[in-house]
Protein backbone atom coordinates (compact mmCIF):
# COMPACT_ATOMS: atom_id res chain seq x y z
CA UNK A 1 0.00 0.00 0.00
CA UNK A 2 1.46 3.37 -1.03
CA UNK A 3 0.86 6.62 0.81
CA UNK A 4 0.82 10.04 -0.71
CA UNK A 5 3.75 12.22 0.30
CA UNK A 6 1.57 14.56 2.40
CA UNK A 7 0.12 11.73 4.48
CA UNK A 8 3.54 10.20 5.05
CA UNK A 9 5.11 13.50 6.15
CA UNK A 10 2.18 14.40 8.39
CA UNK A 11 2.37 11.03 10.13
CA UNK A 12 6.15 10.76 10.51
CA UNK A 13 7.08 14.43 10.94
CA UNK A 14 8.38 14.44 14.52
CA UNK A 15 9.02 10.78 15.20
CA UNK A 16 12.84 10.73 15.30
CA UNK A 17 13.51 14.27 16.53
CA UNK A 18 15.15 14.54 19.96
CA UNK A 19 14.06 17.43 22.17
CA UNK A 20 16.64 19.78 23.67
CA UNK A 21 16.05 19.75 27.40
CA UNK A 22 17.09 22.61 29.65
CA UNK A 23 18.14 26.20 29.20
CA UNK A 24 21.20 28.38 29.74
CA UNK A 25 21.45 27.70 33.48
CA UNK A 26 21.13 23.90 33.20
CA UNK A 27 23.77 21.95 35.17
CA UNK A 28 25.24 25.19 36.53
CA UNK A 29 24.37 24.95 40.23
CA UNK A 30 27.96 25.25 41.40
CA UNK A 31 29.19 27.55 38.61
CA UNK A 32 26.89 30.38 39.68
CA UNK A 33 27.24 29.81 43.41
CA UNK A 34 28.62 32.68 45.50
CA UNK A 35 30.96 32.32 48.43
CA UNK A 36 29.19 32.61 51.76
CA UNK A 37 30.79 35.99 52.58
CA UNK A 38 29.92 37.44 49.17
CA UNK A 39 26.20 36.87 49.64
CA UNK A 40 23.81 39.70 50.46
CA UNK A 41 22.84 42.99 48.94
CA UNK A 42 24.47 44.04 45.67
CA UNK A 43 26.81 46.99 45.57
CA UNK A 44 25.23 49.87 43.64
CA UNK A 45 28.72 50.79 42.42
CA UNK A 46 29.04 47.48 40.56
CA UNK A 47 25.62 47.97 39.05
CA UNK A 48 26.32 51.50 37.79
CA UNK A 49 30.01 51.18 36.78
CA UNK A 50 31.06 52.61 33.41
CA UNK A 51 33.61 51.49 30.83
CA UNK A 52 35.14 53.18 27.81
CA UNK A 53 35.63 51.76 24.32
CA UNK A 54 38.86 49.80 24.01
CA UNK A 55 39.06 49.10 27.75
CA UNK A 56 39.87 45.54 28.88
CA UNK A 57 37.27 43.85 31.09
CA UNK A 58 37.00 40.50 32.87
CA UNK A 59 33.75 38.55 32.59
CA UNK A 60 32.49 37.44 36.00
CA UNK A 61 28.83 36.54 36.45
CA UNK A 62 26.76 38.08 39.23
CA UNK A 63 24.19 35.28 39.76
CA UNK A 64 21.63 37.52 41.48
CA UNK A 65 21.12 39.62 38.31
CA UNK A 66 19.71 37.77 35.30
CA UNK A 67 19.56 40.82 33.02
CA UNK A 68 22.43 40.98 30.53
CA UNK A 69 23.88 37.64 31.66
CA UNK A 70 26.06 35.80 29.15
CA UNK A 71 26.34 32.04 28.60
CA UNK A 72 28.37 30.18 31.20
CA UNK A 73 30.86 28.92 28.59
CA UNK A 74 32.36 32.44 28.50
CA UNK A 75 33.03 32.60 32.27
CA UNK A 76 36.53 33.78 33.09
CA UNK A 77 37.24 35.28 29.66
CA UNK A 78 38.77 38.70 29.21
CA UNK A 79 37.50 40.96 26.45
CA UNK A 80 37.60 44.46 25.04
CA UNK A 81 34.66 46.86 25.20
CA UNK A 82 33.52 47.54 21.62
CA UNK A 83 30.61 49.87 22.39
CA UNK A 84 27.34 50.27 24.25
CA UNK A 85 23.88 48.97 23.58
CA UNK A 86 21.32 50.51 25.91
CA UNK A 87 22.44 49.93 29.50
CA UNK A 88 24.72 47.08 28.42
CA UNK A 89 28.12 46.88 26.76
CA UNK A 90 29.22 45.05 23.63
CA UNK A 91 32.32 43.08 24.59
CA UNK A 92 34.53 41.37 21.99
CA UNK A 93 36.20 38.15 23.16
CA UNK A 94 38.37 35.51 21.55
CA UNK A 95 36.68 32.10 21.80
CA UNK A 96 39.13 29.43 20.60
CA UNK A 97 40.36 31.50 17.68
CA UNK A 98 36.99 33.02 16.78
CA UNK A 99 36.19 36.62 17.63
CA UNK A 100 32.74 36.93 19.23
CA UNK A 101 30.73 39.91 20.42
CA UNK A 102 28.62 39.48 23.55
CA UNK A 103 26.16 41.96 25.04
CA UNK A 104 26.74 42.14 28.80
CA UNK A 105 25.29 44.18 31.65
CA UNK A 106 27.99 46.08 33.62
CA UNK A 107 27.23 44.18 36.85
CA UNK A 108 28.78 41.09 35.18
CA UNK A 109 32.03 42.92 34.29
CA UNK A 110 35.19 43.83 36.20
CA UNK A 111 37.89 46.25 35.09
CA UNK A 112 40.92 44.51 33.56
CA UNK A 113 44.57 45.46 33.30
Characteristics:
113 residues; alpha+beta; SH3 type barrels; 5 strands; 27% strand; extended
Q: Any guess at the CATH architecture?
A: Roll
The CATH class designation is Mainly Beta
Helix-strand makeup class? alpha+beta
For the record, give the distance between the C-alpha atoms at the N and C termini, rounded to a whole number.
Answer: 72 Å
Give the count of structural domains.
1
Strand content: 25-35%
- Outline the biggest β-sheet: 5 strands, antiparallel
Q: Supply Rg.
A: 21 Å
Order of neighbouring strands in the sheet with most strands: 4-3-2-1-5
What is the fold named in CATH at topology level?
Answer: SH3 type barrels
| CATH superfamily (homologous) name | Ribosomal protein L21
- Tally the helices: 2
Helix content: 10-25%
The arrangement of helices and strands along the chain is HHEEEEE
Low-confidence stretches: none
Average pLDDT value? 88
Instruction: Count every beta strand, where a strand is a DSSP E run of 2 or more residues.
Output: 5
Q: What sort of overall outline do the alpha carbons produce when their principal axes are compared?
A: extended
